[in-house]
Every structure is written in structure tokens, then in C-alpha cells.
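Study this pair:
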Amino acid sequence: MKSTRKSLFIVGFALLFYACGTNSSSTSETLSPTEFAEQLKSSNEIILLDVRSPEEIEAGFIERAENLNYNDESFSGSLDNLDHSKKYFVYCASGKRSGKASELMKEKGFASVTTLEGGFNAWKANGLPVKTK
């Protein structure tokens, strides 16, 4: 009986360990505005997502950005339509929505998600280039 309990404990522990590590193939990080800009420049493979509202984008955005409004009710479904194997850089105004979007993307199995520390506000404060419509 003792051997059975020990075996069950080992199996249970192994399952817990496995469950905690199932997202280990996905990566998520936050970069400073200058690091974010440098990596964007270095690769055309990165997909840049601006998760701000269309009204916020009217005031400026980062070149190459595609807009997916985090506050839109279809946001989660829109993520499902993206290629989860690509590398995504995500930003909002201050970093709060992009942080939440990044977590959701990780939960959905995206391979690589990077957020902009301080968001678009920090990008502008660092004198980095801003596009307008």
C-alpha cells in the first residue's frame, strides 16, 4: 500500500511539473523603447501590433504597425486568426493593455510575444519616430 501511495505521489508531482511547463515553448519579454526599436529595425519578420483604439492611432503610431483594438469585443477572436508561430511585438499607450494582450497571446499558444516597456508614450518620450495618418 505504501508503494502505491509513493507511486501516486511521484506521478502526481510529475503531472504538476508537466502542467506548469506546457507553455515553455512560448517566449514573452518586455523591451525598453530603444531595444524595441533596434530589434524592429533588424528584422522584417516581426509583426508589430498596436492594440490601442483607432482614436488613439489618429495621434500617431509606430511604422509597420497593424491595429487590433484590445477593447474591441472581437479582439480575442482576431488573435485566433493570426499565425501563432510568428514573432509579435505588441504595444499600447502605456503598457497595460499590451501586457494583458501579451498574456492572452501566451495562453493562446503564440510562440513569441514581446511588449514595449512604457508603451507608445515611452516611445515618443525617447524621441523615436512616429508616423501620422
